[in-house]
Amino acid sequence: MDTVKHQKKNTSALKKSKSVKNINHYTNVRGLPSIEKIVSSVEDTPRPISTQIVGTIPEWIKGNFLRNGPGKFEIGNHKFNHWVDGMALMHQFKISNGQVTYKSRFLSSDSYQTNKEHNRIAISEFGTVTMPDPCKNVFQRFLSRFESHKPTDNANMSFVTYKGDYYVSTETNIMHKVDPDTLETEKVDWSKFIAVNGATAHPHTEPDGTTYNMGNSYTSKGSYYNIIQVPPTKKTEDETLEGATVLCSIPSVDKTKPSYYHSFAMSENYVVFIEQPIKLDLLKIMTGKLRRKSISDGLFWDPKLNTIFHLIHKHTGKVSSLKYLAKPLSTFHQINAYEEDGFLIIDLCASDDGQAITSYNIQNMRKSGEALDEVFCTHEDLHGEDLHEYGGLEFPQINYHKFNTHPYRYFYGCGFRHLVGDTLIKMDLHGKRMKVWEHPGQYPSEPVFVPSPNATEEDDGVIMSVVITPDEDKSTFFLVLDAKTFEELGRAVVPVNIPYGFHGTFNATA
């Protein structure tokens, strides 16, 4: 984790917190256990089922804890190559009066339906290229290689909100609007509203509901990064992204090799786009089907390039003429950003190489024993040496609605001694203290903070997570921790197996 300070005065210097140390180390954990079952296909559970409550689920919690991630890793005899390729499975933990029910549903995307109909991988994903149709003759199969990749609508990354509605999203131009109670969906195409080829699965939302996101566009003049603004409310009940606008467009430094980005930072007045040295070779991607290569083949890490921080004023769309530079780093998730004493402070999870994406090929995730020892974590530590014991931190979350874009004290995340989270961590920026929840053989997902009713302190609330137990059959559980003490309040054990997912959110109900 890194704290980067950008001074807003007339200087191009990039300043870092004095507490930051540049540390390049390998995790000292060896002989990591196999987590193969975490990436094993499951059946969905479309009707609610009861769970076994251990301890106490606070009765003030009322709503749906929603999770998203891959749930099917092969179609017929064909297997997906990358973790993010698996077919989207939506999960709902409905909490009321101290009880929890669980249900899940495969996203009825075009990709899922087409694959199911042909009983093979018929739509290419990030790390998997579509297989030739055996029903076509040799000439037809040859011609099909000259077709471009059809963008997937397999939105398996996160749950997000626009205008108060919930969507499942990945990084293409297709999202799906979701009823958080029934998990029924409706397809929504960004390109019907604004000229972008996709958008991130990590938008930022203002207190009034105005939402910002980023998306690429590819034109004859080159590649552009676009800042997107979506209005806070709907004018009619059935509208989706109407009124979305492109606030500004930033040209890529290299027109044919734009940077990959998974998210961005936002302060009270600025959107911060981080142009990192993970690059997209558009020519390789465009010719991928001809070469029988997936989109992931077009990604590469260029350590000769600096990382560029672009500042965009949210209210004017004006891009700062100053470019703030840092050493080559890769970042997927930012923790928070805020303005203080003439500085723009950005806290983020970062590493100093671009190997994170390829580490999550499914064959890597199915390794065991010594074969896992090559997996390492490189990071810049925002805290003390004690974090190293837990392999660094990812999937960061904060008390978002109260403290996003503002100075804050606490954040939460998963410790990554393995390829997925194997601990939950609470960080206290005052005194660099940390609390840890861990149990061998249990793999918690991204922690989500939910404030207590009438909360007066930043960490007054609970942490929700789903804990996967690959060594025990049908023992996955929904976990609730006291956010202050980080001690377990209760869990709801689910009598079905659940794969490890990506992101989630809590949908409070009356």
From TrEMBL:
InterPro entries cross-referenced by the UniProt entry? Carotenoid_Oase
Q: Where does Fe cation bind?
A: H202, H262, H333, H503
In the UniProt record, which is one GO cellular component term? Answer: mitochondrion
Which GO BP annotation is one of this protein's?
A: retinal metabolic process
Q: How is the cofactor bound?
A: Binds 1 Fe(2+) ion per subunit.
- Which cofactor is essential here? Fe(2+)
Q: Which domain of life is it from?
A: Eukaryota
The entry's keywords: Iron, Metal-binding
Any one Gene Ontology MF annotation carried by this entry is: carotenoid dioxygenase activity
Q: Which residues form a coiled coil?
A: none
Q: So what family is this one in?
A: Belongs to the carotenoid oxygenase family.
Checking PANTHER family in the record gives: BETA-CAROTENE DIOXYGENASE (PTHR10543), BETA-CAROTENE OXYGENASE 2A (PTHR10543:SF148)
Q: Which protein, by its recorded name, is this?
A: Beta-carotene oxygenase 2b
Source organism per entry reads Astatotilapia calliptera (Eastern happy)
